[in-house]
UniProtKB/TrEMBL annotation, chain A:
It is found in: Cell membrane; Membrane. It comes from the Bacteria. Coiled coil: none annotated. InterPro entries: Cyt_c/ubiquinol_Oxase_su3, Cyt_c_oxidase-like_su3, Cyt_c_oxidase_su3-like_sf, Cyt_c_oxidase_su3_a-hlx. Keywords: Membrane, Transmembrane, Transmembrane helix. It is a multi-pass membrane protein. The keyword Disulfide bond does not apply. This is Cytochrome c oxidase subunit 3. The chain crosses the membrane at residues 20-42, 54-77, 89-109, 129-154, 174-192. Residues 1-194 form the Heme-copper oxidase subunit III family profile domain.
TrEMBL record, chain B:
Residues 591-602 have a biased composition (Polar residues). The chain crosses the membrane at residues 44-66, 93-123, 135-158, 190-215, 227-255, 297-313, 325-347, 353-377, 389-412, 424-450, 462-490, 510-532. Residues 27-571 form the Cytochrome oxidase subunit I profile domain. This is Cbb3-type cytochrome c oxidase subunit I. Residues 589-608 are annotated as: Disordered. It is found in: Membrane. Belongs to the heme-copper respiratory oxidase family. It comes from Pontibacter anaerobius. Its main location: membrane. It comes from the Bacteria. Keywords: Electron transport, Heme, Iron, Membrane, Metal-binding, Respiratory chain, Transmembrane, Transmembrane helix, Transport. It is a multi-pass membrane protein.
Amino acid sequence: MANFPIEEQSSRSGVHPLKFSLWLIIISIIMMFAAFTSAYIVRREEGNWLEFDLPNILLINTVIIAFSSVSMQLAYNSAKQNSLGRLKLMLMVTLGLGIAFLIGQWYGWADLVQNNIYFGGTGSNPSGSFLYVLTGVHGFHLITGLVFVLMVLLSSLKYKVHSKNMLRIQLCTVYWHFLGGLWLYLYIFLRINH
Amino acid sequence: MSSTDISINRDVHHAHEEHDHHHDQNFFEKYVFSLDHKVIAKQFLFMGIFWAFVGGFLSVLFRLQLGWPEATFSFLEPILGGWVENGKLNPEFYLALVTMHGTIMVFFVLTAGLSGTFSNFLIPLQVGARDMASGFMNMLSFWIFFISSVIMFFSLFLETGPAAGGWTVYPPLSALPEAIQGSGDGMTMWLISMALFIVSQLLGGVNYISTVINLRTKGMSMTKLPLTIWAFLLTAILGLLAFPVLFSAALLLIFDRSFGTSFFLSDIYIAGQALTNTGGSAILFQHLFWFLGHPEVYIVIMPAMGLVSEVIATNSRKPIFGYRAMIGSLFGISVLSFVVWAHHMFVTGMNPFLGSVFMFLTLIIAVPSAVKVFNWLATLWRGNIRFTAAMMFAIGFVSLFISGGLTGIILGNSALDIQLHDTYFVVAHFHLVMGAAAFFGMFCGVYHWFPKMFGRMMDEKLGFVHFWFTFISVYLVFMPMHYIGIAGFPRRYYNWTGFEAFNIFTDMNTFISIAAILGFTAQFIFLFNFIYSIFRGRRATENPWHSNTLEWTTPVLPGHGNWPGEIPTVYRWPYDYSKPGSAEDYIPQTVPFSQTQSSNLPNEKDFE
């Protein structure tokens, strides 16, 4: 009995169930950051809020992650056109840019510490702590995204990603664009509220 | 956080799938790390029942203290050890008891136990799917819940006790280990356990939603779905939107507790010494918490509403009254649940104008709730009612929902709430409307779907005994609580004998405690019935209740994949009971209109 792989069930909405699930997960991540940023605004309105300059490196990081989105999209397009060499290259570029972004964020934190903006402890203010939390939680999700990119890269090395097998890279592209967009939102949000 | 899990493990999932179809499953694959939604549902059910007994036992312990404040409880020493000093319950342990009772019942029983069991069990069976959208995520959801449960259970045995700052864990009490013993390791474990719990709920919820949206069988349009599925779908959406916010709040609280940040802490003096934390806002936590907390009460009650709608229609042998109004009211409740959270915070010094806005929004919820109650009563009206045990609990649910809902209208008014805030009136209200009512919905579901879960029937007579004992003791416990609440009796007080005004309620409190113990004892009837029936119950047929929905077209014990052959096609809505002109008093969803020409309505002639 039951010789029907569940994957083969037809989907009613025309979207693959896993892709649909990914969108739902993205919604839950959005809700998490909505909570953080609204808490940020509410808390800021109450006063006793330390104002400080954002590290300049954040702008560079923003550019880096924007480029990584472009390279991810190129990787996706290459997979669609079955140009597997370019696919691998673009995935590696994305991976490299993602790691560069994380390193950049780390330097951003170092910058903050040099300006005596601490995460916790004596002399810390929620304004600084919020910045660490926003970047930190985003960074954590970016690491999960990097793991995903790595997985796709590994399967592309085994020639498992091509125009007939697009699901994996499709999911990865959606997630990666989302992480880039999320950072863009956070950066603009922080710029406006500083 | 949950994001990578599916992505990373998608490969693993594939491997498992293929594996399943080539070999027989061994014991671990079949019963422990199963990907089958029915097994996972049972795992959630067993865990839920276990937790319900733990939570109930804790409530009996603090009812002993409240009912007999002068008594000595030396007989509890073998169980509680150091928490009983000279025959007296430790006051901080009392706080830990109420905290853990609330946490366990709200999250582990009525969220994971209820949604986890019935969403998992019924969604694929009732929409006509072979399994959930991702069986692996589903399994992960249970096992993360299991780890979370283990951590929470372990925290009960810490020397400093489990979390004791109330199930709402308001800082600064919960944030400072100096404040109370329970805010030490117990609170840390509470937060870790809840963070895992949220991940588990999100994984489950994502699955429920994408299964309902994507994997419905042929012909199963959204307006042919049973109301159970609508309720589970909207519950999962609420969870998906609300739980991440609690996760944020918990994360910030973890940082405040362990990393020295000051999100929720400011200007606190302990023993004359100022803490270094400045700039935090304790009210901020309450906003974040209740943004989850209020939808959470609907996450608890809506699955029960769905189960009850289905059971009432089946056992009244009548179509559900106002099918679309039922869906509409579920929608209304879901939307409104996100814009009323501040009615939990009327006494936080909120702007009175803002308070009145939240008051109006809160009172509007009475409308969809009343629509649902009206429709249940109208379904029962002149129905050909069969009083099965499940039906008794369904009717009990409606009764409790009405009695508890009426006091909600009182508490929704900010002027009245400020008077009644943190009294037993509030306790009575929410225990009736979401605690007991959701439990009744859960019992109703277990009695009704037991034959499909285990292939055997539960004993109806024991079910009746269980119902009447539970129903009567619920009212005996919570009705008197309204009175002591109106008199101003505050909740969470360990000892009230020092207050002259409250001494006159000693008898009432003793009465409540006796009723509570009676109610708890009655649950062992259920436990016996449940376990006995799994092994020795009367064997069930495929469709013992003569019900219309798809799960009853499966074999008595559906295997992995649910239907041995093709998945059946759906032709009609699930509530064709007692249709005039039909030979039987039920027409399953799989019967095409061409076979029921005698009973088709004029507008259904086209489908023949």
